[in-house]
Design brief:
Distance between the termini: 31 Å
Number of strands: 10
Protein name: DUF3150 domain-containing protein
Oligomer: single chain
InterPro entries: DUF3150
Pfam families: DUF3150
Number of helices: 13
Structural class: alpha+beta
Length: 340
């Protein structure tokens, strides 16, 4: 299945531009008290920091917050993101908040810019001259900061098939057609991060482990119109949430079910096969039950098929370092990725 270009009617493109002063200047031969330097044809000099990187760290953090916000709500598209129309007001409000904080931090940094440079020089005794010789004005630094975004609709031009402009449509259609695959790829990446941070090697997790899964669920529900198989994956997540109790740590079969679900989300090909099976009538409860039932199978390190419960028990005996990826039910098998 591919994404139809008509989804553009329900999407808004967002382009984010964040500029941060690097506080770096190019090293020059005069910075060194020696003429014994290699020729430029052989090697080039690198850069020097003229300000403490720690003073600029907050700007990178704010940029990451904005990027994460867009990743949570949209899918990568044309060098930016494509967001569902019903999320635009919410995202716009959050971006405005981040931009306000960015501006406030910029003004605070520029107010103490001269002191920051002097502190950096004192922190690097013996190298005062190469820093002092490259200092730039506060006005220059101000011009190197920026936080802006643009939101716009993308529409296909109305052209004849034999028109040269039809090539424009062709290129755009190629990008839109792959939106579903892009979305599932982003879900796989998020699931892999979640697996390593919250589930690998664990025999017990707190309810915080559900947070990234809920983020994925919200992203999928917002973009469910992008591809028919998106909704079944969201339904699978919702079914899993319903199976987890409201309180207490997550252990035993419930944890094993979640580990199997995260493992499935990590593999786009297997995930699409299961999503298609749900479109064809398979119950999501049956899929989740397969992660813990006696009929579920995984592949051992030597390629032999073994029972999930037996494998899980062996893992608990052998230690956390040998924790396999959670098992999948009979059907599309996941690549072990070296974990079993």
């Amino acid at each position: 299945m591919h994404t139809d270009i008509t989804v553009l009617d329900s999407l808004v493109a967002v382009h984010l531009t964040v500029n941060i002063w690097t506080a770096r200047r190019k090293l020059v031969p005069s910075d060194f008290n020696t003429t014994n330097l290699p020729p430029e044809e052989l090697a080039s000099l690198g850069s020097k920091r003229i300000c403490n990187p720690a003073d600029l760290r907050v700007f990178g953090t704010l940029k990451s917050r904005a990027t994460t916000l867009l990743d949570r709500n949209g899918v990568r598209f044309l060098g930016g993101w494509a967001l569902p129309e019903d999320r635009i007001v919410e995202v716009q409000t959050e971006l405005e908040g981040i931009a306000t904080e960015f501006l406030r931090e910029k003004d605070a940094f520029l107010d103490r810019y001269d002191d920051a440079i002097r502190d950096w020089i004192r922190t690097n005794p013996g190298w005062e001259s190469i820093i002092a010789n490259s200092i730039v004005s506060a006005d220059y630094v101000r011009s190197r900061f920026g936080f802006a975004w643009q939101m716009f609709k993308v529409q296909t031009p109305a052209v004849r098939d034999d028109s040269p402009d039809s090539l424009v449509n062709t290129g755009l259609e190629d990008v839109v057609t792959g939106l579903g695959q892009t979305l599932f790829g982003e879900i796989a990446k998020a699931a892999t991060d979640t697996w390593h941070k919250s589930f690998v090697g664990k025999t017990e997790v707190t309810r915080k482990a559900l947070s990234p899964l809920r983020t994925m669920y919200r992203k999928l529900t917002g973009l469910s119109f992008v591809e028919p198989r998106v909704s079944p994956v969201a339904d699978l997540l919702q079914t899993a949430f319903s199976a987890v109790g409201r309180k207490g740590h997550i252990v035993g079969p419930t944890l094993l079910m979640l580990q199997g679900l995260v493992s499935l989300l990590r593999d786009p090909e297997a995930l699409l096969e299961h999503a298609q099976s749900m479109l064809d009538g398979r119950n999501p409860d049956d899929i989740l039950a397969g992660f813990t039932g006696p009929g579920s199978l995984v592949l051992s390190e030597n390629g032999e098929t073994i029972g999930a419960q037996e494998d899980y028990a062996d893992v608990q005996d052998e230690g956390a370092d040998e924790m396999p990826m959670a098992p999948l039910p009979i059907g599309p098998q996941l690549d072990s990725l070296g974990l079993w």
